[in-house]
Amino acid sequence: MAPNFVFPQTLKALEEEYEDNRFCARNTIDIASLRPSELEEFVKGVSFDLSDKELFCVEEQDVFDRVYSLIRGYSVLPSSCKFNIVESLRSNLSVLLPNVDSLTRLSEGQDGESPVLDRVASHRNAFKIYTFFLFSIVLAEESNINSSNNSKVTASTRKKHPINSWNWEPQRGRIVNLIANSLEVNLTLLFGSSGLDENYVSFVARKSFSLFENATLLKDSDTKDALCRIIGACATKYQYMAQSCASIMHLIHKYDFVVTHIADAVAGAERKYSDGSLASSLIREIGRTNPKDYVKDTAGAENVGRFMVELADRLPKLLSTNIGVLVPHFGGDSYKIRNALVGVLGKLVAKAFKDEEGELSSKSVRLRTKQAMLEILLERCRDVAAYTRSRVLHVWAELCEEHSVSIGLWNEVAEVATGRLEDKSAIVRKSALNLLIMMLQHNPFGPQLRIASFEATLEQYKKKLKELEPDILTESVISELPSESETCNGDGEVDDVNAVGMTKEQQESLSDSCLPHIEEDTVKMNSSVPDVGNLEQTRALVASLEAGLRFSKSIAAKMPTLVQLMASSSATDVENTILLLMRCRQFQIDGSEECLRKMLPLVFSQDKSIYEAVENAFITIYISKNPVETAKNILNLAIESNIGDLAALEFMVGALVSKGDISSSAMSALWDFFCFNISGTTAEQSRGALYVLCMAAKSNPGVLGSHIQDIIDIGLGRWAKVEPLLARTACIALQRLSQEDKEKLLSSNGSRVFSILQGLITGFWLPENIWYAAADRAIAAIYTIHPTPETLAADLVKKSLNSVFDFSGGEELQSETDSGNDGLLTTVQVGKLSRYLFVASHVAMNQLVYIESCLRKIQKQKVYKEKVESESQMIHGNGTMPGDTAKENGINAELGLAASEDAILDTLSERAEKEIVSGDLKEKNLIGQCTPFLSKLCRNFNLMQKYPELQASAMLALCRFMIIDANFCDANLQLLFTVVENAQSDVVRSNCTIALGDLAVRFPNLLEPWTENMYSRLQDPSVSVRKNAVLVLSHLILNDMMKVKGYINEMAMRLEDEDERISNLARLFFHELSKKGSNPVYNLLPDILGKLTNQNLKRESFCNIMQFLIGSIKKEKQMEALVEKLCNRFSGVTDTRQWECISYCLSQLAFTEKGMKKLMELFKTFEHALSEESVTDYFRNIITKAKKFAKPELRVCVEEFEDKLNKFHAEKKEQEVTARNAQIHHQKIGHKEGFVITRNSKEDGAESDTSEDGEVIDPSIGVVAQSRNDVSNFKSAESDEHSGASSELTESEPGDVEVQSPTSNRRGASRSRAKKSNRKGQNNDISASTRRNMRSKQR
User: Fold this and answer.
1) Quick check: 219 and 172 in contact, CB under 8 A?
2) What SS3 state is found at 525?
3) Helices (H), 918-1059
4) Other CB atoms closer than 10 Å to residue 142's CB: what's the count?
5) Does residue 839 sit in helix, strand or coil?
6) Which class for 924: exposed (0-12), middle (13-18), buried (19 or more C-beta within 10 A)?
7) Please, are residues 400 and 442 in contact by the beta-carbon 8 Å criterion?
8) Is the pLDDT of residue 1273 over 60?
């Protein structure tokens, strides 16, 4: 009988001899020393012995030694030899396994006989030896593969050592599968009734776990499955539990690629052996781990979390019974573990409670468990970590998709999701938007969620419910939603009774593609509603309708928030908001259509993803396969859009026309709408169709050429009287004709068109409010089409002037205006005068534009001519210019004739521009005659106040003339700023504010001294004026046309404007300003801080402004520099409010390690301010933030700084208390001395009055001292209310400012001067009483 084989720690350990007479290798052979032929013969001999002899011949010493020698030198064996030895060992072990069953039958017949026991021992030895050698081969081969992969193989090496001729992967899979099969055989006879040899199980498990560390090996499914079976068998079947759990946890913590495979192994063991002890042990091991350990090992925490989620997905019921040991980790600091636990709960809710078998009591327990899990998920939506909040919302989306959320819980989830739309983290907002999309897609209430429809249906069924229960008062149903067992089945899906007329197909998830528009009418309920069953079913239906109505209202209420999210700086916010609004529109949520229109301005976004999202949404909503429907959608959108949306729509239509997304058939349909070829078309729709065609003409000018006659006949004909804006749109269409179409129009219908346009401008058939817009476009059309527009424009001005006055000129009116007599204006219609001023000023502006266009045309022709000449000369001269031409060009260059031509052009253009308004001094031009009268008219403030419409028109004309002529601008700037500050009309002030922006662009030097006045418009009481001021200043500053001067604090105050749109515009301004250069906001911040602290701003507003501005500074160096700048501002400041403001700004900075060191170095600058509790609190906040990112060395410094801060604060507070006590003590001493002096003065009878004075005065000192003490104690409570109260008083009673502001500003200084003032008061009291006594004695 051979000695027992014991698994060694290493392969070479078999060569050592042990005292317990275990099997070992005695006569080994050095394989490396053999020649190839000898080696091949040696391997063949070993293979022959293994196949020819009995299976357990391997325990013969000679065979064992030879096999061991081959395994030891396995790496140097050629591929054929490797194949032979592997096949021999594997086939012997595969034959040996069935013999175990025959041994079992043999042992039953011959119990206790020694031959049988010897045979069993031989089988056991052979089994272990084969297993050991095969595992050793696998490990050796994998080690060779890894080393070859890690080392660089040169080309010469590859030539010397060709690739192995055998494929190792199938062999490896067969070997590992064979070992896995061996563990599944009944091995109790081989190893005894006490169980398997622990040495054998330990070896197999240890080697299997080592193979799990190879990521490449796990990609082979056969090998991976076999390893999973081995681990499951060792841990579960053979009770190798503790060691397996430790090895599994080590693998999970160290290698992320093993997580799913280990989960497969654990789940496979539970299914195969119906024993979940391995999974339970692992869960308990994870639960026992200290939560702080997961904070240190973030990678391990992530792997453990993934493993828990994978396990919950595979074994939901088992994990649901052990979830209690994991729940405490929700209180840990590792957000990755909390994320995983949230995912686990989601898997359990979806999968662990589906079966309906069992007793009623067990069902109720499961429902309670599920409800508890859902409550935890709701609670986790408020987790401190943004990643966890995002993960929870993602889990809720998965549950909605799997129909695992009941109606009773639906609205709670919806409220959580809508609340998270305003989360400060972008990833949370993204998850909330996705959750709402999923809730709409899988909602249990129906395909349309219109509030009116729900209310009508609910009202009908409430009446039905009252009829079914006449004797019972109807209770509020919304608070008594049906329980989960009543409203959902085991899968959490809603029963059919919960929807009105809904089939099962309607309750399933709707199509993922957002349908254009669900053409489904609102459900109209007649007096007889469908009977849904008995009383309980009707109650459930009413509850379901209540829940649906509440869900629809909760989504509709968040439309303003969604509009705000579309203006977010995060592209994901914008994209997902658009997707949600499209889904809302699909389900007919109230307000979704209006919100979607507000996405149009986003087409101007520089972010490509946002533009693509808007474009895709536009195509999905408005572009359909039916061209008539497409045309109708777009023209209706154009009719309902405002000016800003029309600009965006024009951009979008132009892009889609150029891409071909708007087809030619859709364009034909638009023409049909314009020409009234489609029945039911209104004049408004005709105008909308023509406007869309004008938009398309920007990218394809030939669109309008085929219907020029229709534009004239319809747009400028009788339909213009029905729809006045149609005339304006027709003028726009004439402007956008191509050059060929314009020439065709001039040749065919030119005179007719110009007479129509002239009649439109000088006639009175258009309404007053529309005439201005139409005349604007008509004059522009004349200047675009007419070959000599100035002649026709002159006639327009003359006719307009003649329509106002019955005399030849305006001298009489001017003299009347100068004298202040408005009697003549009673005979002149104000409306006609306003129109004349508009026509004259607008002609002047268009004349200026026309002159500039002519200049550009001449310059372009000149460049083109020079280019053609140079090319022709190069061709004729074979690349060289003729001598005469070259000589002539050289002479012209020397004389400066070429430059003089450009100078002549510039002089002519300047003269032409100047002649528009000023003209020659000797000759008055047509418009120049109007300007003196206009200037004096605008200065007649009494007249302007009497006729506000005239003032609006006159000031608009004045601004236009000022834009044209610099001299006229300089002469009337004072008048313009007087009007912009004092005019009663908001329209006038707004127009003037906008004109100031144009003037600043055209004449920056003239406007530069008036910069402060321009900024003062930001404080205008009118919302429209402030909004235009913000827009104008933003345009000027961002385009470098105005320097950011010391008044930028006025713009900063608009961040907290009461009007939300102005606030958003100011935010956009500072956001764009921060992108310029090295961020000008960084340089402006100290100046803004200094000026804001001196203004009566509410504390909350100040904090919001500074928080936003500091948030726009991202560079670390700028943050560090700001630390020094802000700390230095403490020096020389004694006002407590300024201390608080500066310290608040410091607390908002994103501190780095250098920044913290800088703050510690500058401690001396702000130590005097630490007496204030609020200032100290801000510095404590800084320290708290620093501790989160500080390294151990810096953390020690931060803690020392904290101790120093607290110590200094305590000392300052103690000094204050001491000073206050000393003040009280001195006052008491003064009271006693005064009392003694008073007693001495009583000796003289005539001195009684004086002594009475002393007695009256002295107690008052004590009273004053007590009152001062009370005031000082009450001051801290009063300071919180002071800022708000003072601002109110400042607005209502300006006189109170002089009383309050010194009080608020002297708090810090009064304490430092307390002793001196008290001592002076004391000395004055004593000296006064002494003088009175002296005077009494002299008497």
Assistant:
1) no
2) coil
3) 930-939, 941-946, 948-964, 966-982, 986-1002, 1004-1007, 1011-1016, 1023-1038, 1048-1053
4) 18
5) helix
6) middle
7) yes
8) no
**pLDDT tens digits along 802-834:** 888 764 444 544 554 455 444 444 467 888 899
Q: What b/e string do you get for 1319-1331 counting C-beta neighbours within 10 Å, with b at 16 or more? A: eebbeebeeebee
User: Which is nearest to 538 in space by CA: 498, 502, 493, 506?
Assistant: 498
Residues in the chain: 1339
Which residue's structure tokens are 């708000």?
A: 1284
| Contact (CB, 8 A) for 404 and 492 | yes
In angstroms, the first-to-last Cα distance of the chain is 145
Structure token pair of residue 1079: 């961020």
Residues 6+ apart with CB under 8 A from 1284: 1098, 1099
Which pLDDT does position 193 carry in this prediction?
A: 57
DSSP state of 714: I
Q: What is the pTM of this model?
A: 0.73
Residue 1104 CB neighbour total at 10 angstroms: 15
Closest CA to 631 of 655, 599, 665, 658: 665
- Residue from 226, 312, 214 nearest 263 by CA: 312
With H, G, I as helix, E, B as strand and everything else as coil, classify residue 806: coil
Mean per-residue pLDDT for 533-538?
A: 78
Residues pairing with 494 in the sheet: 488
- Each as own residue / partner, the long-range contacts of residues 748-754 (CB below 8 Å, 24 or more positions apart, any chain) are 749/708, 749/709, 749/712, 750/785, 752/712, 753/712, 753/716, 753/785, 754/782, 754/786, 754/792
Q: What's the rounded Cα separation, in Å, for the pair 635 and 662? A: 13
Contact 597, 642 (CB under 8 A): no
Confidence of residue 1231 (pLDDT cuts 50, 70, 90): low
Paired tokens of 109: 């017949």
Query: Which phi-psi region, left, alpha or beta, contains residue 820 (left: φ > 0; alpha: ψ -120 to 50)?
Result: left
Question: What is the Cα–Cα distance from 911 to 904, expressed in whole angstroms?
Answer: 10
Non-local (6+) Cβ contacts of 1154 within 8 A are 1116, 1120
Say if CB 1144 and CB 1178 are below 8 A apart. yes
Q: Which pLDDT belongs to residue 731?
A: 93
| Residues 198/199/205/206 CA torsion (nearest 10 deg) | 140
- DSSP assignment letter at 494: B
Given a contact cutoff of 8 angstroms between Cβ atoms, the answer to whether 1244 and 1337 are in contact is yes
Please say if the pLDDT value at position 883 is more than 80: no
Residue 501 region, left (φ>0) first, then alpha (ψ -120 to 50), else beta?
left
Dihedral of the alpha carbons of 39, 41, 43, 49, in degrees to the nearest 10? -150
Q: Which amino acid is at 579?
A: L
Q: For the chain, what is the largest distance between any 2 Cα atoms, rounded to a whole number of angstroms?
A: 152
Residue type, 711: I
Q: 676: phi > 0 → left, psi -120 to 50 → alpha, else beta; which?
A: left
Using CA atoms, how far apart are residues 518 and 1101, in angstroms rounded to an integer?
Answer: 46
Q: What is the distance between the alpha carbons of residues 1227 and 1049, in angstroms, rounded to a whole number? A: 46
Q: Which residues contact 1025 (CB under 8 A, 6 or more apart)?
A: 986, 989, 990, 993, 1017
Please count the CA atoms within 13 angstroms of the CA of 1236 that sit on its side-chain side. 6
Please list the residues that pair with 488 across neighbouring strands: 494
Question: How far is the C-alpha of 1103 from the C-alpha of 1239, rounded, in Å?
Answer: 59
Secondary structure (DSSP) of 555-578: HHTTHHHHHHHTT-S-HHHHHHHH
